[in-house]
Amino acid sequence: MNAHRKPGDLWDLAERITRILSLLAIPVVIAIVGGLIQSSLARRTVSQQYVQVAVSILTSKEKLDPSLRSWAVDLLNDNSPTHLSEAVKLKLKEGSVTLPSGPNPLDTANFRLAQRYLKRLGYYRGEETGDYDNALYQAVTQFQKDNNLEVDGYPGGQTNRKMLDKYEEMLKKPGSGP
């Protein structure tokens, strides 16, 4: 380097170095910020999927293994933006409280079918609405008791099979019909 540079030359050199560094730094900063945003979005998406899994388990009408219920409650609490209180977590894990769920078209069809067959078998006296109401719960519970099924008040697979079997038996008897 020349020891006799003018002060203006030093400023020129500093400006050139600054421009080169800024040209290198801007893409690096953009890449880092973009990576952080992408990582955050990916974590949020995974958390949403975990919440969906947990909610689907906790809104299930089937009887759940206590360890699966406990796992789903912890998964929900860890990944939901709203955290559950200790009392609510305990009740969800015990199964003494459940998450509300909207009617599923398949559930509605299942409930309507249960209402129809339980009505024909003399257990249900209401309308065939497809709603899971107290009258349907009572009818299913009584049917399950009378047929030595697990009593949970829900018209699941075994209960539905037994209802159809009983209805077919009833049809085979002389003088009976729908």
Write up what this structure looks like.
The protein has 178 residues and is an all-alpha fold. It has six helices and no strands. It folds into two domains: 7-94, no CATH class; 105-172, Muramoyl-pentapeptide Carboxypeptidase, domain 1 (Orthogonal Bundle), CATH 1.10.101. The protein has helices at 7-58, 66-79, 86-94, 105-120, 134-146, 157-172. It is rod-shaped.
Total of DSSP H or I helical runs spanning 4+ residues = 6
C-alpha end-to-end distance: 107 Å
Structural category is mainly alpha
- Domain count: the total is 2
| Average pLDDT over all residues | 84
* Main sheet overview: none
* Approximate helicity band: 55-70%
List unreliable stretches of 5+ residues.
Answer: none
What are the key terms here?
178 residues; mainly alpha; Muramoyl-pentapeptide Carboxypeptidase, domain 1; 2 domains; 6 helices
What is the secondary structure topology, with strand pairs?
Elements: H1 7-58, H2 66-79, H3 86-94, H4 105-120, H5 134-146, H6 157-172
Explain briefly what this protein structure is.
The chain is mostly helical and 178 residues long. Helix content is 67%, strand content 0%.
